[in-house]
Amino acid sequence: MANENDYQNLRDRIAALREAVTNRFAGDLVGNPALADALKQQVDDILAAVVKQDMQSKPPPDKGLSQLVGVGPEAADELGKTRIPQGVEPYDEQITSERLVAVGDLYYIYQHEKIGVFRVIRKLKELFHAGAVRLSSGQGAFLLYQFDRRDVLRYTLNDRLSAYRRAFGYGNVPVPQGTTPNVDFHNQFGHFINQVALFWRDKRISDVVRERAYDPSFGSIAIVRRAGLDLRNNLKFTSFGHLNVLRVEVMQLLEEAFKILGADDVKNLFGTDNAWDTVEEVLVRYYNERLVTSPRQRMGVAGREVLRWLAQPHIMKMQRGQFEALLLEIAEFAEEWLTSAQSMGLAKRMEANRVMPWGNGNGSPAATAPPGAGRRAEIRRRSGRTAAMGRS
């Protein structure tokens, strides 16, 4: 149990230790910047161990109040002898992995819903019931019958659309009473993916410009971490309730749908080679739709991997090398999602303005500032100063 004197001495000694280590290895740090990370991590581990041990010690029954106010035999005669707690457990350390993984699966399902997989199955059911297609006793026909019979046990289309609105803010279906649409999700999701993509682009540039470059200006870990924590915190409050069991059921539903669409009698009916070709054939033939199959499907795959990554404690790693190694897992997924979303007008690639204003969630898929806006504003300001100097 630390008192105020111990608390202050610990901070002073840690600061002195950092300075002594830095002075001792000053020459090596210039040629080997990674050594600085290792030394910093060792000192941080020492401090964390001391703080953890103090937080686990049992406080006195009155939590140290009698020492502070000067009551009883344990009253302190100076402030330095009073007890001071180390703090509380950090906010961002608290996360439930299962719920974020469930949200990732739900995002994957949403993209397949937007592609039209379930609408294609509904159309097949209508044609099958009307006898308008040559399906009778094949594997696809039997699976379609079973799919239809189990329909009364599943969540309805409105249930799914309401879940998408509550979790991601997508669509316009009313959400259940007592909750609100998550209108901040898309902006924060796009912002985090932009920062991950920017980080790796900056790192690749640094590797080209300077061999084994280690300049913090080439890729900011702090910006990526903050964007990821904001997104994770947003999803933490929208992932409660029935979303977990709903995504399990709908993932089963999606699997059944593709078994039907990939059955031989269904493929022969539409002259297709695989289940995805059947989806596109039905959408074009019966709905006359512009196909978005490829970008939407890749957005679902890449987006789910990014959200799964956030479900793990990787975002909290403080050492640069360790953080970069873990972030590499979603580097290509971030670029792939961003390119697919950009091609459909659902996101913009961030270049100059790297900070998204807080509370910018207005439900718009592309609420970020246009690329190059900051640079154009700077050019206008410089032009104004030049004109003013000419007039003077």
General description of the model:
- By secondary structure, the protein is mainly alpha-helical.
- It folds into 2 domains: about 5-90, no CATH class; about 105-345, no CATH class.
- Helix content is about 65%, strand content about 0%.
- It is built from 17 helices and no strands.
- It has helices at about 5-25, 25-30, 35-55, 65-70, 95-115, 115-130, 140-150, 155-170, 185-210, 220-235, 245-260, 265-270, 275-285, 295-310, 320-325, 330-345, 375-390.
- The longest helix has 25 residues, at about 185-210.
- The radius of gyration is 29 Å and the shape is elongated.
- The termini are far apart.
- Mean pLDDT is about 80; it is low at about 215, about 365-370 and about 385-390.
- Unreliable sequence segments: 213-217, 363-371, 385-392
Q: Overall 3D geometry?
A: elongated
Total of domains: 2
Tell me the series of helices and strands, N- to C-terminal: HHHHHHHHHHHHHHHHH
> What's the helix count?
17
The structure class reads mainly alpha
State the end-to-end distance: 68 Å
Q: Describe the biggest sheet?
A: none
Give helix % range: 55-70%
Gyration radius (Cα, Å) is 29 Å
Average pLDDT number: 81
Number of strands: 0
Strand content: under 5%
